[in-house]
Design brief:
It contains 1 helix and 10 strands; from the N terminus they run H-E-E-E-E-E-E-E-E-E-E. By secondary structure, it is mostly beta strands. The longest helix has 16 residues.
């Protein structure tokens, strides 16, 4: 009887110490805004429940704004909307580079530049750079 109790206690301790399944852990999405406009990031995941609309305050190239979000792991389609003061609801997207696929099954860092600046090559592996070649378009 004592052996069974001891075995059950050890089994319970091992199960409590086990890590949760890999897909259930939340991931960190760090957004660095180097544009001089507020941003709204629209994230649409492969699952219908994974949909986010995130606000990122304005920054600058010298003093970027950094915002950290904790979200559910998924592969998201991300669209950055640059918000205008005269039209804070709709804003505009930046040419054809406005929508990107972002794999948030690990911690990811996204750097967003002004719409008229091209993103530089290089950077850390978990960094995604958004910008454009100029010419924004209005969101519908």
């Amino acid at each position: 009887m004592k052996r069974k109790l001891l075995a059950l206690t050890l089994l319970a301790i091992l199960l409590l110490g086990a890590a949760p399944p890999k897909g259930l852990l939340l991931k960190r999405l760090t957004v660095v805004n180097k544009s001089e406009r507020d941003l709204e990031l629209e994230l649409t995941g492969s699952c219908d429940d994974n949909w986010y609309y995130l606000h990122v305050p304005a920054g600058s190239r010298d003093f970027p704004s950094m915002t950290v979000f904790t979200i559910t792991p998924d592969v998201y389609s991300m669209t950055a909307h640059y918000i205008e003061l005269w039209d804070p609801v709709y804003g505009y997207t930046c040419g054809d580079t406005s929508s990107r696929s972002v794999d948030v099954t690990r911690n990811v860092r996204v750097v967003i530049l002004d719409c008229n600046l091209r993103p530089p090559n290089g950077g850390e592996p978990s960094m995604i750079k958004l910008g454009g070649s100029g010419g924004g378009r209005r969101r519908r």
